[in-house]
Write a structure and sequence with these properties.
With about 280 residues, the protein is of the alpha+beta class. Helix content is about 40%, strand content about 25%. The chain is built from 9 helices and 10 strands.
Length: about 280
């Protein structure tokens, strides 16, 4: 997408290359617009104003097109995106209209509809002719949670009602993947014996990085390190070890650089922060 500067440059080049303009202004061949007109000139101000208006109009058209394309994609039935939207549309304790994939809103308030929609997170993928639908509810803190047994049973029945005949589904509804972190944090020597407050700040920052990941988003060690090193008084950070364990797994799995949670979200099992003295003069 063009910037205001790009648009103004294009207008200015056309302006100084016009033969009538050249003669009227006495412009010199080979010199740019900026070399012959100051930024405070009327011509420069007008071109900037026009360029800003054109840029705004182009952005409006771009956003409108993106919105229309997204709506069309959402309406296209039986795509992965469609299944994600339908999963979130599930209403616990309500029945679908006859021969339909929709519910009746008759006699229901917006709050009642929202309360019945127990699936707040859903991601669909496909592999070897199987559609994998990863879902979760939402707890009172606004974080993903495991659907209850009754909610899950109702949701499975709902999916079987709306899916295409013959389509194989694997619905994943699991507790959060556990994650353990062991991190070295280097701080100035003056702080090495008074790290209680800093430890609390770092713990909150680690939790923020983990819990603000999009549902089914990848955890990246580099992102966590960047966040930690932005904390005041932290000079350098190093992840000694990071491990994760999905529900039902017998062993912990080491994370080398990145990891996608089986359940779609994480729960911090343990966090060990080792403070080390930072010596900026060390060779």
């Amino acid at each position: 997408m063009r910037t205001i500067k790009d648009i103004k440059r294009s207008m200015a080049e056309d302006f100084i290359n016009n033969e009538v303009i050249k003669e009227a202004y006495g412009l010199q061949e080979g010199k740019s617009f900026e070399e012959q007109f100051s930024q405070a000139s009327l011509e420069s101000i007008l071109f900037y104003t026009f360029a800003t208006a054109v840029w705004l109009l182009e952005n409006l058209f771009y956003e409108h097109r993106a919105e229309v394309e997204q709506r069309l994609a959402d309406l296209l039935p039986h795509t992965l995106r469609w299944y994600e939207l339908k999963a979130k549309a599930f209403r616990y304790g309500q029945k679908l209209l006859p021969n339909s994939d929709k519910y009746s809103d008759k006699g229901l308030t917006a709050d009642e509809i929202k309360k019945a929609q127990r699936v707040r997170y859903a991601v669909a993928s496909e592999s070897k002719n199987v559609v994998y639908l990863k879902v979760a509810g939402q707890n009172d803190k606004g974080k993903p949670r495991l659907l209850t047994a009754d909610e899950y049973a109702g949701f499975v029945h709902y999916i079987n009602e709306i899916k295409d005949a013959g389509v194989l589904f694997d619905i994943i509804n699991k507790p959060a993947d556990k994650i353990k972190l062991d991190i070295d944090v280097y701080v100035p020597s003056s702080l090495i014996d008074s790290t209680t407050e800093l430890r609390q700040v770092l713990t909150k920052e680690v939790e923020r990085v983990l819990y603000e990941l999009p549902f089914d988003g990848r955890y990246r060690s580099s992102d966590l390190l960047t966040a930690i090193e932005k904390v005041d008084k932290v000079e350098v950070a190093y992840i000694r070890q990071s491990q994760t364990q999905a529900e039902g797994a017998s062993e912990w799995t080491s994370i080398t650089a990145y990891h996608r949670p089986v359940a779609g979200y994480y729960a911090l099992e343990s966090l060990n922060i080792n403070f080390q003295e930072y010596n900026q003069y060390e060779k």
